[in-house]
Specification:
Serine Threonine Protein Phosphatase 5, Tetratricopeptide repeat, disordered C terminus, DNA Cyclobutane Dipyrimidine Photolyase, subunit A, domain 3, globular, alpha/beta, 475 residues
Length: 475
């Protein structure tokens, strides 16, 4: 009989620091770290292409940190554990739970399998600051609005635990089976645009902490105001590291608390609270990525014009602020949060395209695409979610650009064909006189598209469509 092994199952916690499950078995005499690429996941929860690129590099980095001992599998997790039980004498299995509905159901099945074979197991929360089941109103019902959820429900509970230091030594076990490396999972998509992502990201746990240090030093001081300006360096860009668990929310929370108190620190912590609220919604509404939380939107008359959708995806709408956001996404696998709201509003309101189509595009192209945040964010901008922006709140991409990109740095970077236009016409080139366009070397319809919709008319149509909805149940 082979030596008894203790298994740590890595999931969305691809890190060593503040990994409660991993730290719980750091003294195990034979520790076998594994990762399973679940091939049985439903389509709506599969990994998008940009996410696959990130996951590949995250696993390669983690495997290097673990001295090449990470054992990877490409199969159903239940089948993998059945195989592991046949191969090893297993003393214990530990993992950090996931709060996505499909994975929660999977946890239950694997726990039952381990019990059947009399194998000890233990699960931990390594993903959220507060477990969703612990946050509830006095009457036991779930919160539906962010502010009381965060200020009463979350901040009314004990402060999130302190980060767990990275274990210094592991007794890593050499696998008995043929070594399956992260590269063998064949995660990297074959689309050339992914090659550009490596110019913008370093995918590792150490890079996450370096990014946090840099943000605290250079971006945090003006975060509350500066985070609204896409050309500024006031956002943390930590979202993909959080999404794949290369840094934990507990590390971020306590690092913020170590900084001098300020409105910027408070606001950053509230953004972590929004992440918690997204997972909270997913916990209470497992179909968050499929169905409107506000059922009156079930009868909304979406247009779903395929040509409009394609123009939006390609950043060819003729609306510079929208196109800049969509091109940033295609170029970097990321989009500034202000731009996400602008492009989202334009899609669901000016184009009247179903929010689920926008969500699917983001899912495929964002390196930080997260089931809870992506779903809740799109329901928020569409006006059909919990504590959502009202549908009649329609972002004007021209005035948004003028206000939040006043020097035009963001638009000129991602829509370089408009670079020579003066600021006055940069966000609405269709209003520029012919001589101005000629001097800027822009011919609308040739060098840059004419607007695919009239902003004023499309806004009126959206409001008319909203008024046609029947009154229905709230969230």
């Amino acid at each position: 009989m082979p030596d008894q092994v203790t298994i740590h199952w890595f999931r969305k916690d691809l890190r060593l620091m503040d990994n409660p499950a991993l730290s719980s078995v750091q003294s195990a005499p034979h520790l076998l770290p594994i990762y399973i690429l679940d091939i049985d996941r439903a389509d709506d929860a599969s990994i998008g292409e940009a996410g696959r690129w990130w996951l590949h590099h995250a696993l390669v980095s983690l495997n290097s940190t673990l001295k090449g001992t990470l054992q990877c599998y490409r199969n159903s997790p239940l089948k993998v554990f059945e195989q592991l039980i046949q191969t090893y004498s297993i003393e214990k299995v530990v993992w950090n739970i996931s709060y996505e509905p499909i994975e929660s159901a999977l946890d239950i099945a694997i726990q039952a399998l381990l019990r059947m074979h009399h194998i000890e197991y233990e699960t931990f929360n390594g993903t959220l600051l507060w477990s969703p089941e612990c946050v509830q109103k006095l009457d036991g019902s779930p919160y539906k609005v962010f502010t009381p959820f965060y200020k009463k429900g979350c901040l009314g509970l004990p402060e999130p635990r302190a980060p767990i230091p990275q274990p210094k030594v592991f007794n890593l076990y050499a696998s008995l089976t043929a070594k399956t490396t992260p590269e063998a999972l064949d995660l990297c998509p074959r689309h050339a645009w992914h090659d550009k992502l490596q110019l913008h990201w370093v995918v590792s746990e150490s890079a996450a902490h370096e990014r946090l240090d840099d943000f605290i030093e250079h971006g945090l001081n003006d975060y509350k105001l500066g985070r609204n300006y896409p050309a500024r360096d006031n956002v943390s860009r930590l979202s993909p590291y959080l999404r794949w668990g290369q840094i934990s929310p507990h590390v971020l929370w306590h690092r913020m608390n170590d900084v001098m108190p300020s409105e910027n620190v408070t606001h950053f912590c509230s953004e972590l609270g929004w992440r918690e609220f997204s997972y909270y919604q997913l916990h209470h509404h497992p179909d968050l990525n499929q169905n409107n939380l506000q059922s009156k939107f079930d009868s909304f008359p979406w247009s779903n014009d395929s040509n409009h959708l394609k123009a939006w995806q390609q950043g060819q709408t003729g609306i510079p602020m929208v196109d800049a956001g969509m091109r940033e996404l295609w170029e970097t696998g990321y989009m500034h949060n202000r731009s996400r709201m602008i492009v989202g509003s334009f899609l669901v309101k000016n184009l009247r395209i179903d929010w689920r189509l926008g969500m699917q595009w983001f899912w495929n192209t964002l390196v930080d695409a997260d089931l809870a945040n992506n779903s809740a964010g799109w329901q928020w901008i569409a006006g059909c979610g919990a504590d959502a922006a009202p549908y009649f709140r329609i972002f004007n991409p021209v005035t948004q650009g003028q206000k939040f990109d006043p020097q035009g740095d963001y638009v000129r970077r991602f829509v370089p064909e408009l670079a020579l236009l003066p600021d006055q016409y940069l966000f609405s080139p269709w209003e520029a006189p012919a001589l101005i366009l000629k001097a800027a070397q822009v011919e609308l319809g040739v060098d840059y598209p004419k607007p695919i919709v009239d902003l004023k008319i499309s806004r009126e149509k959206a409001l008319s469509a909203f008024k046609s909805l029947k009154s229905s149940d709230a969230v």
